[in-house]
Amino acid sequence: MGQRVGIFGGTFDPPHVGHLLLALDALDHLALDRLIFVPAARQPLKQGVAMTPAEHRLAMTEALAAADFRFSVDGSEVARGGLSYTVDTVRALKAALPDAELILLMGADTAATLPQWREPEALGLLVQVAVAGRGAEPMQLPAGFRAQPFPMRRVDISATEIRARVAEGRSIRGFVPDAVADYIAAHGLYRTTTE
């Protein structure tokens, strides 16, 4: 049997401690050998939403992933550009890691959107879905998906809040790893005015 590999996609705008805790809890509770973060170039369900350029989100995700040797970052969606479809990325990872068992990680809110994704039935055949839970939340998944819940430590941090704190000139230490905070500061991200 090959490795158990977690896939954790998202906009990561910016990647924060909540993402890190979900990843660490998935490693522990799902007995993953490694976890791959996949920053999206453009999320189809977030069209029209302003987003930080993909190269910055990729670099910040790489800074977050440096926290654990079992983490890596796949920049293929950013390299492809355009809309990012998970099924395309999973097919590529399946081809690159034919012996691995792929587990797609997500929160319950994301799991609820699966019917809107491109080719959800095909995706369900390629991966197992693991849904991070914070209690007795019901899991509503499309037919064909194999879902495994796993517990996640509760943390009330959002990327929206972090962007707002930066725009207001407030500290984000403790909200993101120091390497991510340093990157945001060095590149002047999330400021509302130019200096």
UniProtKB/TrEMBL annotation:
Which InterPro entries does the record associate with it? Answer: Cyt_trans-like, NadD/NMNAT, Rossmann-like_a/b/a_fold
Q: What is the lineage of its organism?
A: Bacteria, Pseudomonadati, Gemmatimonadota, Gemmatimonadia, Gemmatimonadales
Query: Which EC number(s) are documented for this chain?
Result: 2.7.7.18
Hey, which pathway is this one from? Cofactor biosynthesis; NAD(+) biosynthesis; deamido-NAD(+) from nicotinate D-ribonucleotide: step 1/1
Catalytic reactions of this protein: nicotinate beta-D-ribonucleotide + ATP + H(+) = deamido-NAD(+) + diphosphate
Belongs to which family?
Belongs to the NadD family.
Cytidyltransferase-like domain span: 7-165
Task: State what this protein does.
Answer: Catalyzes the reversible adenylation of nicotinate mononucleotide (NaMN) to nicotinic acid adenine dinucleotide (NaAD).
This one is known as Probable nicotinate-nucleotide adenylyltransferase
**Which gene produces this protein?**
nadD
Q: Which UniProt keywords apply?
A: ATP-binding, NAD, Nucleotide-binding, Nucleotidyltransferase, Pyridine nucleotide biosynthesis, Transferase
Q: Which CDD domains match?
A: NMNAT
Which Pfam families would you find in this protein's record?
A: CTP_transf_like
> Which Gene Ontology MF annotations are present?
ATP binding; nicotinate-nucleotide adenylyltransferase activity
Which organism's genome codes for this protein? Pseudogemmatithrix spongiicola
BP GO annotations: NAD+ biosynthetic process
